[in-house]
Amino acid sequence: MLVLITYDVSTLTNAGQKRLRKVSKICQRYGQRVQNSVFECVVDTTQFAQLKVELSEVINESTDSLRFYQLGKNYKNKVWHIGAKPSIDIEGTLLF
């Protein structure tokens, strides 16, 4: 399933800046960054549960915000892209 993750982490303190880096690194392990604080992740149910646990352990719920949008398995007709940064087929062949 495709999950869209957005986050807003308060960076007014050094601890907040550290949380922001941790949130970004966790999201990068599961998907691709499509905007500064937005990731697209193709995960199964178990991975999604683990991702939510990992992120909830990092954020400060009184100052930070996480949003998860489940677009499901048939997401290809639910996502449109216009503008810079062309879309990448996140389930396509990965070339190094």
Automatic annotation (TrEMBL):
Its EC number is 3.1.-.-. Gene3D superfamilies: 3.30.70.240. SUPFAM superfamilies: TTP0101/SSO1404-like. It is an enzyme of class 3 (hydrolase). InterPro entries: CRISPR_associated_Cas2, Virulence_VapD/CRISPR_Cas2. GO terms for molecular function: endonuclease activity. Its cofactor is Mg(2+). Mg(2+) binds at D8. Keywords: Antiviral defense, Endonuclease, Hydrolase, Magnesium, Metal-binding, Nuclease. Homodimer, forms a heterotetramer with a Cas1 homodimer. CRISPR (clustered regularly interspaced short palindromic repeat), is an adaptive immune system that provides protection against mobile genetic elements (viruses, transposable elements and conjugative plasmids). CRISPR clusters contain sequences complementary to antecedent mobile elements and target invading nucleic acids. CRISPR clusters are transcribed and processed into CRISPR RNA (crRNA). Functions as a ssRNA-specific endoribonuclease. Involved in the integration of spacer DNA into the CRISPR cassette. Belongs to the CRISPR-associated endoribonuclease Cas2 protein family. NCBIfam families: cas2. This is CRISPR-associated endoribonuclease Cas2. The lineage of its organism: Bacteria, Bacillati, Bacillota, Bacilli, Bacillales. The gene is cas2.
